[in-house]
């Protein structure tokens, strides 16, 4: 333990210079951990603010409805947050094999080299988490400008207690540690499984059945006049669950359709990669899909007319629902963008041998860039399309065909989704630098 | 004198590093590889054989001297032009790790044609023909992870040959294989080159690999120090 810790301390700042992918992965992992921490604290700060407002039973929200919605949005964002943390950890342990092999040859035990890797990942997570706390503080003034319940936030409302900041930093480090240990166990237990890639079995279409079933049940309930608040929350939960079940199957189908249509080398490579790992494809864009679903529901609800004695309060609530939906979409978009950048960087580093061989054989770097871009856009278009369709299926019985006749609503929804999608494509573009580095 | 489809190197030098501390990898190499000829380049580690292969193939630009392919000087071409030349005129076989793991054998082999803009169906058909010729009939849809090392290298040979290159560059093509598989790969590589009239430049440490070629060059300290014919012609 002590020897491994000394070794780690000795090696922690050693790399082979600017073109060393090790350095680049370290920077990317730290950035990913920083984004995860900053957004986690922003979400927790927002949730805390709504809980505090609910305690004071602000006019317009006597039942703590905002706290319930904020909690739902936070739960929704937990999935992409943990996904990003895990991806960053896997990147932190990626491509350590050459260095670890050299250390093993020099006499280090498996346990010692494993500990070195875990220390690396945890140190990067801690560095990223500390940067993330600074990022959270920097973001607070902008977050405070958001208007909910008819007013902006006080900075004090959004500041989370010191112990929660500590818990977030420790939590991020723990996610990194657990992911690193899990990654190492996979390599140690089944080294052949890592190297040997076989034809993946297709996912079964029956995964789509629950979505159809829930939509049908929901439609019947609405037609029977049973659509209460509890039903809407139930729809959200059921929608999340089914989207996560259906998502990988849809990725697989989208990949196969793209493969059938592939004419160029870039399209072929991209489609094969999506088919190769539909779950990975879904993990990188699933957050945006879930947020698109929420934004779709929120936008639809926002088009209802407020009436009755508390019409003014209702109007604020409906507008806030739409704002909350788009805010969730924006945060999910940022998380997905960083996840995509991290996952693609990891893949480039894992496949640097093949990248070099293709480049030596005269493959234009633009072809490789296009393949990675399409590897992101194929799942993204399919995921966002699925989520928008799912939102429409669930809301159609409630809103009727007027859902499609409100141009401002559709434009705002499409604009929000396009913005989040553009962020993800930008995230994919960030891995261009990694390709140039590994080919240098 | 240069003839069509000849590959020539004249007074080739290559240095790495800065002016104050540079390492000389090539120190003046002259070489002629005639159309359809096979040449093995041998030598100890650091003798410059891989650098010579990279200069001849237009992967790196020599510090001085010239490389002429099919009557055209290529050393002074832009990076993009040299990349395009490698795509259209040359084929490559490396030691290992060159196949994309997600693609089945037929698509890996079809890639060079698709990169040239050949329609996918046509490219895959041509790739299948090469795979069958190389003894991989029935394995077209297998992925690299489902093939043995020797089979994967045959797919790499199919990929190198599919676009009918003028020169095939092979860098330690059997370095990761056992002797029997290695000889099998060399046999199909040299036969395939003869079949298409392509020249073959093989960099190797292994005398038994070099013996498959028509001429063997020995390098030391960045120079070609000797040249001979193999004792037994295959």
Average per-residue pLDDT of chain A, rounded, comes to 78
The overall number of domains of chain B is 1
Number of helical segments with 4 or more residues of chain B? 7
Can you identify the CATH superfamily of chain B? P-loop containing nucleotide triphosphate hydrolases
By DSSP, the count of extended strands of chain A is 0
**What is the chains' assembly state?**
heterodimer
Strand order of the largest sheet of chain B: 6-7-8-3-9-10
The outline of chain B comes out as: globular
Distance between the termini of chain A: 37 Å
Helix content of chain B: 25-40%
CATH topology of chain B: Rossmann fold
Low-confidence stretches of chain A: 187-196
Give keywords.
heterodimer, A: 440 residues, mainly alpha, 2 domains, globular, B: 234 residues, alpha/beta, Rossmann fold, six-stranded mixed β-sheet, four-stranded antiparallel β-sheet, 7 helices, 10 strands, 26% strand
Short description:
Chain A is mostly helical.
Question: What's the arrangement of secondary structure elements?
Answer:
The complex is a heterodimer of chains A (440) and B (234).
Chain A: H1 2-11, H2 21-55, H3 65-93, H4 97-105, H5 110-144, H6 155-158, H7 162-189, H8 191-195, H9 209-223, H10 229-261, H11 265-276, H12 278-302, H13 311-350, H14 352-360, H15 365-399, H16 407-429, H17 432-439
Chain B: E1 7-17, E2 22-33, E3 38-42, H1 49-56, E4 64-69, E5 72-73, H2 79-89, E6 90-93, H3 105-115, H4 120-133, H5 149-161, E7 167-171, H6 179-196, E8 199-203, H7 207-210, E9 215-220, E10 223-228
Parallel strand pairs in B: 3-8, 3-9, 6-7, 7-8
Antiparallel strand pairs in B: 1-2, 1-4, 4-5, 9-10
Helix pairs in contact in B: 3-4, 3-5, 5-6
